[in-house]
Design brief:
Length: 701
């Protein structure tokens, strides 16, 4: 019985492992090495490239021990203290890559001013980035070999690909589940090694004892580097929420030698404090908003964090507060440890949701809307360039916030402005939406300001200015702290939401890394690729088109339903389910002419391109969910039919699969075009890639 299904079990396990490990590594590296939160597609590109090369060379013997060894190496590179002494500082060669790349000034990276970059540090940063890239490639290459061979050897191509899809869906679902259970990375990788061990035990290969020994050694290294030898100081509680790595520790008043509160570091950088009024001051960023408007009944806080904004509102007699926070981990820490315990107050209603999603869902009117510090600078999804805060600071988002304000309502926006053009952009967005000049002043010298800027506007600016005149202390504070940002940055929209780019264009940091990477890959290709054996261009362009299509769906779903991990999980799973339905369709109906299916694919892409996303917002939530999902995902169904039909007829399935994954890596590079064109225009690029794939289709199809 077991022998009968060994082929199925082997394919299922390797497919599950690849998807699970892919998401785990993308999330972990983007957290621990912050540069990959900005170059996050680079990790995904490495995964696809490794899988693609593995499938391409699946006729050669796979060495899964290489995957396990490279996983151990990667974990040690990130966690152990590999430091360089640069400019009187000890810099971690891999964790501190952002500091090496500060010469690239056309995009923003958190805490980038910690050191001044030069030619040497820039080269070191690029090379360190590529070391991590190739470590990921070599983790996935043997896995791709095993999967490619399993797919090629399987007699029923549709059944094999269906098993691959089902296992991938379960891999996504399982990783999402353990993420919401706050499982740390050592647990993720231990589970992955468990699957490795099962694959070894079930295989008919020799030397299984040696392979199992490598699993055990890797497991011990993971435990040692991630638990016994943590890279951070002791005395910190580390929590891996569904979104971020949170490090929680005490904040000491060194003058009094007493604890004055707590601090939460997010993804290895300082992010927020939990302080009482005693340490924030009368004109803190959490108290000053309520001097612009008296007698506030309903308040909306977007990005409520650990509770400082809610505590400030309660101190200033606000009667009812809706506090929206996307990260349940941050909320739980605030609910348990904030000195003023604001989240237990019955006046505070906590909503765990994406800020933009909440703005779309509610019709409630507010006296004041406060945008907390939402500049997350972290990864939103494993499959695109979007970050959690991108859709919060667009013209459409500000318009939605204004819609919720009463006639005399006030909007407060706080932001850490690292570049003048970011401050100018936020100023101009508010001015355009509210048709009035906003107040802009710095909170840098306040006890908790951390260099942030506050923007104040509303539906009745004359009344706001009158309130300031009647408050002498406030008027003096604003007059002293006024900021006038210069520049002419492009305003962010839902189609071009790139807050940390001054203007359309691919950042020089991206270009430099990709140029060096492509040069290395071309040189390596001449050495390792067999002469006379090229890529299958039909499958190459199918893969590139599919990844751009997937990016479209994830980005647009995030805008429609929120940039949450749950939405991303459902979106990616829905894409895979549609691929599965395409398999079923092809198994039931004979496809006589793929050109007709190509026609339906291009037509469905045209519908996706032409219907603005805002049109779906006029529908109810469930109607929007059904209709928008159908329109956005219909091209996936037709693309799936083309892929499985072509794969079924292919006489070199390993070459086809390898070319497809390498094409997906190409799609990951092309996604950066959205920095220039905007997101929706990538639908046209997607259609173009599919049309090129038609040119290279087998004439018999």
């Amino acid at each position: 019985m077991f022998k009968k299904y060994r082929e199925d079990i082997n394919l299922f396990l390797i497919s599950f492992l690849i998807l699970f490990l892919e998401i785990a590594i993308v999330r972990w590296i983007s957290t621990e090495i912050r540069i990959f939160a900005y170059l996050n597609n680079l990790v995904l590109l490495a995964c696809f490239l490794g899988i693609g090369l593995g499938c391409y060379f699946s006729d050669r013997k796979a060495c899964l021990s290489l995957s396990i060894s490279m996983l151990s190496v990667l974990i040690m590179l990130v966690n152990l203290p590999f430091t360089a002494h640069i400019k009187d500082e000890f810099i971690h060669i891999f964790r501190d890559i952002p500091f090496f790349l500060t010469a690239f000034t056309d995009s923003v990276v958190w805490y980038e001013t910690a050191m001044t970059s030069n030619f040497f540090t820039t080269i070191l940063g690029i090379l360190s980035t590529l070391v991590i890239f190739f470590a990921v490639v070599f983790i996935f290459m043997p896995l791709g070999q095993v999967m490619g061979k399993a797919m090629s050897d399987y007699k029923d191509t549709i059944r094999a690909y269906s098993l691959n899809i089902i296992a991938s869906i379960l891999g996504i679902a399982y990783f999402s589940r353990i993420s919401f259970l706050y499982a740390p990375p050592w647990f993720w990788f231990t589970l992955a090694l468990g699957v490795f061990a099962i694959i070894f035990l079930l295989s008919a290969q020799e030397r299984n004892l040696q392979n199992l020994a490598s699993v055990l050694i890797c497991l011990m290294l993971i435990i040692a580097t991630m638990m016994i030898l943590p890279p951070k100081k002791f005395g910190r509680t580390i929590v891996w929420s569904p979104y971020q790595k949170l490090e929680f520790h005490s904040l000491i008043d060194r003058e009094r030698n007493v604890q004055k509160g707590y601090i939460i570091d997010v993804n290895n950088v300082g992010y927020m404090t939990l302080l009482s009024r005693e340490y924030t001051g009368e004109l803190s960023q959490y108290d000053i908003p309520y001097r612009f408007k008296k007698d506030i009944g309903n308040l909306l806080i977007l990005g409520a964090g650990a509770g400082n904004d809610a505590a400030g509102a309660l101190r200033n007699k606000v009667r009812y507060i809706d506090a929206v926070e996307i990260d349940p981990g941050i909320y739980k820490l605030g609910a348990k440890f904030h000195p003023e315990d604001p989240y237990s107050n019955p006046k505070v209603n906590v909503v765990i949701d994406d800020a933009r999603s909440f703005l779309k869902k509610t019709d409630k009117k507010y006296d004041m809307v406060c945008f907390g510090l939402l500049d997350s600078h972290i990864l939103s999804s494993s499959y695109n360039n979007m970050r959690l805060d991108h859709y919060v600071y667009t013209r459409e988002s500000i318009e939605e916030a204004r819609r919720l304000l009463k006639k005399d309502g006030v909007l407060i926006l706080t932001f850490w402005v690292q570049r003048d053009w970011i401050g100018k952009r936020l100023h101009d967005l508010l001015k355009e939406v509210f048709k009035a000049e906003p107040l802009v002043f710095s909170m840098e010298d306040t006890s908790d300001g951390f260099g942030i800027t506050m923007f104040v506007t509303g539906n009745n600016m004359p009344q706001i200015l009158e309130n300031i005149k009647s408050d002498e202390k406030l008027a003096q504070f604003i007059d002293k702290k006024k900021v006038d940002y210069q520049g002419s940055p492009k305003l962010t929209t839902d189609d071009w939401p790139y807050l940390y780019l001054e203007k359309p264009g691919i950042p020089r940091m991206h270009i430099s890394v990709l140029i060096v990477l492509l040069a290395l890959l071309i040189a390596a290709g001449k050495v390792i690729l067999p002469k006379g054996m090229g890529l299958d261009l039909h499958f190459l362009f199918l893969g590139a088109g599919f990844l751009l299509l997937e990016f479209q769906n994830i980005s647009k779903s995030a805008l429609l339903f929120g940039s949450t991990w749950l939405v991303n999980t459902f979106t990616i799973s829905a894409i895979l389910v549609l691929c599965l339905l395409a398999n079923i369709f092809v198994s039931k109906f004979k496809i006589r002419n793929l050109k007709f299916i190509y026609g339906l694919l291009i037509l469905s892409l045209a519908v996706t391109f032409l219907i603005p996303l805002r049109m779906y917002n006029f529908l109810g939530y469930w109607q929007k969910s059904i209709i928008a999902s159908l329109v956005l995902n219909l091209p996936v169904f037709f693309a799936g039919i083309i892929f499985i039909t072509s794969l079924k007829k292919s006489s070199h399935k390993n070459l086809a699969l390898g070319s497809n994954f390498i094409g997906a890596a190409l799609g990951g590079i092309l996604e950066s075009l959205s920095f220039i064109t905007g997101i929706n225009a990538l639908v046209l690029a997607c259609a173009g890639l599919y049309m090129v794939s038609l040119i290279f289709i087998n004439p018999q199809d």
